[in-house]
Design a protein that fits this description.
Elements (H helix, E strand, L loop, with lengths): L6 E6 L2 H8 L6 E9 L2 E7 L7 E6 L2 H7 L8 E6 L3 H10 L3 E2 L4 E3 L2 E7 L5 E7 L2
Parallel strand pairs: 1-4, 5-9
Antiparallel strand pairs: 2-3, 3-4, 6-8, 7-8, 8-9
Pfam families: Glyoxalase
InterPro entries: Glyas_Bleomycin-R_OHBP_Dase, Glyas_Fos-R_dOase_dom, VOC_core
Length: 130
């Protein structure tokens, strides 16, 4: 039996805002953007086109979902972007305006820096030691 996470959702203010940040600034790939009618879209992104796990950008509807934007993990780092070239990714993302909350640091498991999206969702950019 084989199982894996195929996708998870991040609630964003709008589909276009999510694409503008994650694709144009953070360097993710737009995998799919399908109009589902009635203002709904199926928007999948991934760190690279061949990534197995995708992120569904979910446009917030209603007060409860709007309140969850940027706080889906209660303020903790909830998402982990692994890189095989930390320095290049850090430079590209920084140059594109991604906000890093700290300078890169070395930990026993590898190199890491915390970054966030414009709404407050916190991520680790990390390169594991081999």
């Amino acid at each position: 039996m084989s199982r894996h996470i195929s996708a998870f959702a991040i609630v964003v203010p709008s589909y276009d805002d999510g694409i503008a940040f994650y694709v144009k600034r953070a360097g993710f790939s737009l995998i799919e953007d399908t109009n589902m009618g009635d203002g709904k879209r199926w928007v999948l992104i991934a760190p690279s086109p061949d990534a197995e796990t995708r992120i569904l950008l979910a446009e917030a509807k209603g007060d409860t979902q709007v309140a969850a934007i940027g706080n889906q993990t209660g303020g903790r780092v909830g998402f982990f972007l692994h890189s095989d070239d930390f320095d290049a990714d850090f430079q590209q993302m920084s140059a594109a305006g991604v906000i890093f909350e700290e300078a890169p640091r070395d930990e026993p498991y590898g190199k890491v820096a915390v970054w966030r999206d414009p709404w407050g969702n916190r991520w680790d950019l990390l390169q594991l030691k081999s």
